Prior knowledge:
Strand order of the largest sheet: 7-16-15-9-13-12
Distance between the termini: 57 Å
CATH topology of the largest domain: Lipoxygenase-1
Radius of gyration: 28 Å
Number of domains: 6
CATH architecture of the largest domain: Sandwich
Structural class: alpha+beta
CATH superfamily of the largest domain: sav2460 like domains
Number of strands: 21
Amino acid sequence: MQRYAHLWDHPGMGQSLEPLVIRHTHRLPSLAGAAGAGDVAARQLDAALMSVGFKLSADLLEHLSGLSESTVVDTAVTTLATVREMVGDHVQHNAYFVDFPANVPDTFDFWMRCIAEALTDDTARAGTLDQLRTGVVDLLTLPSYGAYQHTYAEMLAHHSELIAAAGDRMTVLHLGDDLDSEVTALYLALAGSSTPLSQDDLGDLTALARACVHGPQPEAIPIRENRAIVNQARVSVGAQPLLDTVTDVLRLACALSGGDVSLREPTRFGALSRRVRRALLAGLDAVVAAAPARLADVRPHREAWKRLGERLHPHEYPRWPYAADVFVVARGEKRAQSFDGRAEELLGTNDVTGTATLLKSAPGKLLRSLDHLLRSAATDGEREAVVAAVEEVVHQVSGRVVLSVREHFHNRGEHNRSESSQGEDAGERRVFVNRLGRAWVTSDDRPPVPPAERQRVLAVLDAEIRRRLPAAGHLLIDPNVLDVALPLSGKATASGLGVLPRGSVSPVDGELLRFFVYWKQSRHRTDYDLSALMLDARYKTVCWLSYTSLTEVEGEHSGDITDAPDGASEFINLRLGAVRGRFIVPQVNIFSGEGFEEVEESFFGFMLREAEQQGRPFEPRTVRMKSELRGPGKVALPLVFLRGPDGRWRAKWLHLYLKGAPTANRVEGNQVSVARLLRGIVERDQLTVRYLTGLMTDDATGMTLWDGTTVPDEPVTYIGLQRPDGLHPESRVITPENLRDLIPD
């Protein structure tokens, strides 16, 4: 039978930046309130935090205990609201089946029950009988299908209290500096990041840039999107924007118009004040006057430039003639050959050596073109020229690009095929993922890179990365962080709690694995479907759990909710020991209504618990990950669970979205495309923390794998999933919240 069968406001809006600091750093800014006896209130806050899987560090508990009770209570309100939202406990998670995961019926029996109940309903009986005569029933017309049949309070009454377990998540909040210092430090970290930020982080940077516009500024802002946001704040207070390319000006104009600073989506430029128009034109004129070749950068965005010209009226400002040239080029009245165009012309004549020589003046482009150049080279001399060019200029390339190219060439080698690659459909694949997480897969028919040159390139890149890494001193490493992928782009990580970059692998310990999705529609009826696909070692379907398959040997589905005006949740409960196959692929399908970027709120996560713990369908202490769903496409693939040869389960993070169908997406319909994509992702190796720490140990005075108990007395460089209590105050601490700091400049 078919189916027919946020957050605190940013400053400038009158709210505190304290929640933002807590979310990004897991630190609570120190308070300067009146001294007093706040110990009772502090202990009560600690107990309340523990109920949702958080805890005050010893230093923070001591700090709060020395403040007045009223100060601690005010802080508690903000802190509790923030962490509850971080973990997804700020909303009520009901389940269609009140006893879930107990007493979930067989799918067909459940549908028959809904039909029987409709036949006893005076308003639904006639329509249901008509449908039964045709042999096809629309489930959405049945009164008891798709909507909660009980209140949240009634659901709670059917569940016992959660039994505490040693494996429950406990996220420690540490004592920070004063709020101004924490805000400034966070602003400098985000604005000066060497890797692109996620969309949510860009929104946070916008708030921080406004708050910090008159304070300390980063020494460098290498990411152009970040620069546009900082420039927006500077222009708003009459300061000079930081511009060195014409595209910087275009991004700034987009920011000022509330548009897309990444330039992926067209911006509708609004009316600009005379002051702003002058600032943009003056900046544009200065950039082109200093380097007329910059006019070549206009062509890729000429339509946007033409629209912007209609708002800037450059003809009214003859004192800035170089700015006017930008719009002449955009209209096609003046030719400005791009650097890429010259390189393409040389490569089109098979002049590999000439192309490599030209690209030395744009080292980043040289490294990004390296695979193509080595494959195009016909002689040993040409290949030598290409690699020699890389050796000459690699020191000028950003660390993020060096690492990205290093990862690329690692995956261009001849790896041993896995068991799954030996049988049917065993060809090589290329997986493409854009900045928004939209993914697609195709066959890889590229010829191999010559092995000798590949090895030489890898050695060059390794040496360059090693040279840039700072002296680590004593390394203290949590073993669980070693297989976390380096965050070469914040676009590869969704916002949330316990979220790791795409490609990261982390252990999964527990008897029961429970997925959850929550969504709240904005204007239109919206139906999201949580599903889990089980695949064998050859990526073939074993079974699935969804609204069309409520029970399997592996577990149970909580029931289908088809309308979410007040918010809705769905769950899948899995007994890991009973799972058949090697892979578990949770997914969220949009059956109808608003997309992930249109709903008021939507997020996915998973919990781990032991069988005897009982508890409600949603228990914040057991949540290991909560990730915002904000991406294109109709099918979300947050992560995959893999069973290794040792029988242990691990999670590999995906953060992917499939295009899907306009409506009626179901796990049955996308299982083949999901399997093809999954294989391409699972069998690709990411550069991980293990790789960088391996290079760092060359200069380290010592390295210790942390056993989770005692920490050294001296300062260390700690790299782990969570900061331990008791670290020396002069220690350098790297956790997922600031993992980008590992990426060398």
